[in-house]
Amino acid sequence: MQNIVTFKVWGKYALFTDPLTKIGGEKYSYQIPTYEALKGALSSVYWKPTIIWIIDKVRVMKRIKTQTRNAKPLKYYKEGNDLAIYTYLADVEYQVQARFVWNENRKDLTGDQNENKHYFVAKRMIERGGRRDVFLGTRECQAYVEPCEFGEGEGEYDKYGVLDFGLMFHGFDYPDEAQKGEFYARFWHPKMVDGVIEFAPPDDKSLRRKFVRSMKASPPKSLGLIEEDLLEGYEEGSV
Asked: What stretch of H or E contains 55?
C-alpha cells in the first residue's frame, strides 16, 4: 500500500540556518525550509529506527518574511554571553508530503517492517500533533502540525512562477542510514514553482556531497512498535 503522509506545519518563527552565517556567531535563515529541517519535524511527530522519512515536496503557504531578534549566545572562549542578532522567518506555514522507506542498515529490525502499522501510527501521530516537541530549524522555533491535503487552500505563491534560491544545504547522510562509518553534508540548487519545492531524494546523484568526518553509528535499541497504546484501535488489514 502507499505510505504517503501529508500534513501542515506552522509556527511564529523558523530558522533554517545558512551555514555561512554561523561563522561569526550570528545566524541568518534561508528563505525556504531545508530538507533536513522538515525531516526533523516529521521525525518528532513519529519516528522509529526501522524507517527513514523521505520528504517529497513542500508548499510555501504564506509570504516569506524575516524578522531580526537580539540573542545572547554563550561565549566559547570564556564565561559569559556574547551579543548577536539572529534573523528568523516570521509567521510561517507549510504543507508537506512525505513517505517512508526501510532502513536497510538495521537488519535487526527486519521483523518490524510492517508498512501498514507504521503508516497507521504515523497518521495517528499527525492527528495528535506529534509524539515530541516539533520545531522548525532550531529549538526556540516551536511548531505545530495537523493533517491536510497537499495542495488544498490558497497559497501566497500559487501563481508566482519559478524562483531559484541558489546553492543551499539539503541534509545529512548519517552513518546509521547511509554509508557506514562516514558522515556527509548534502547541498543542492532548489527551485520553487508556483509555491511548491520538489526535493531531490537523498540518493540523487545530482546532489553535491561534502565529507564531514568519520563517525561510528550507535544504533538505539528498539522493540519496534511494541509500545503501550501505540497501536490502540489498530487491526491488521484495517488500513
From this structure: strand 51-60
